[in-house]
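thoughts on both lines:
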Amino acid sequence: MNRITSEIIRLSQLSASSTPEHIAQVIKLTINAFRAEKPLFSADQPKKENLEKCLDIFNSAYQQYSISMEPEKRKTAQMSISGLYFITDELSKIYPDLYSKFDQIRKSNYIQSIIEYIDNTTGIEPEFCAPFKDEIIDFSKIPKSHVWWFFEENDEDE
């Protein structure tokens, strides 16, 4: 069983409440999906019922995560949102009905607010040692549709 599928199973066994542990597990799962070789689910697909159980956990986790954004979390958020997009895109091929439910999370106000935060803080260095700050990102493996990686610092001195 691949790592992403194992993490989905583990996450599906949690209650749907939003605790710091749940948030951390969702962020870890999606960052691992960001880093993993694609396709994520080529031979080892997660069961539909596990993914269905994860929906509320993903929803709650990102809702809570969106209200705690700060520059130290920006790169973590970029990787996590990309991981969510990679997972969701692959679901379109194996579980189209679940794809639409995960896509609703991608289009949610809280994901959009995280993306806006990333855009608005581009160029601001984290005050403290941020997780993954020194991690080298291979931008050739990031689709252009993951726009939160390609924001440019914009001076608005007019």
